[in-house]
Design brief:
Elements: E1 4-6, H1 22-26, E2 33-35, E3 43-50, E4 56-64, E5 80-87, E6 92-93, E7 100-101, H2 106-121, H3 128-146, E8 155-161, E9 164-173, E10 176-182, E11 187-194, E12 203-205
Antiparallel strand pairs: 1-3, 2-12, 3-4, 4-5, 5-11, 6-7, 8-9, 9-10, 10-11
Helix pairs in contact: 2-3
């Protein structure tokens, strides 16, 4: 999936200084999903992924503890759930007309969620020189797992999406949990988290994305 993710700026303390400009999320031609009203904690904008032509392909919104690049919270203290919304697209021509772009799928959403979890939970005790090697190895493993959703690494978890029971592919690891499924509004949903149980979550269309800014 050929997209570019734009990261959110942080201060020296690792806390975001400015929420991502909500204008980017408003440019999407699909609805954004987040946790439903049963979640009453903090909400924040995450990364945004765009195609080569600048169109929005996917993005994420967070719930709970915001990211910290300096490990101010230990792995055991982190409590968050991030929801990834991915536009459902068929195979299509590339913007320059020289090739085709692959279709998006539930596997694509699982990959985005799995790689997102890794970016939040890499082992802080690793030396900096070893972190990239670890991340590359784990990212390759996450892709293999996402590409085989019917394999033994996944179970089925049914959760409400817009109040409708919806099956998700779900797996747990030492770093947290990951899930992916399909919503009825032309999008795929991925999610990942740590410290918050996935079993009681529900998803709903975000009525006003500015509430996350």
């Amino acid at each position: 999936m050929e997209t570019t993710s734009r990261a959110e700026p942080h201060t020296a303390r690792g806390v975001p200084t400015a929420r991502r400009a909500v204008a980017g999320f408003l440019q999407a031609g699909f609805p954004w999903y987040g946790l439903d009203d049963a979640f009453s904690g903090p909400r924040w904008l995450g990364s945004l992924g765009t195609a080569a032509d600048g169109s929005v392909e996917h993005g994420s919104v967070g719930h709970g503890d915001e990211p910290s690049i300096h490990g101010e919270l230990s792995d055991d203290d982190q409590r968050f759930a991030v929801v990834v919304t991915l536009a459902s697209r068929p195979v299509r021509r590339s913007p320059d007309g020289t090739g085709v772009l692959e279709a998006t799928s539930v596997s694509s959403a699982a990959w985005l969620a799995g790689s997102g979890l890794l970016s939040r939970t890499w082992p802080s005790q690793l030396e900096r020189a070893l972190r990239q090697d670890w991340l590359e190895q784990q990212t390759a493993l996450a892709w293999d797992l996402a590409d085989s959703l019917d394999g033994g690494g996944w179970t089925t978890l049914t959760l409400p999406v817009d109040s409708e029971p919806t099956p998700f592919h779900y797996r747990e690891s030492d770093y947290g949990w990951v899930m992916a499924g399909h919503a009825a509004r032309g999008v795929h949903i991925g999610a990942y988290g740590r410290g918050m149980s996935a079993y009681g979550l529900g998803f709903a269309v975000i009525k006003d994305i500015e509430t996350y800014a």
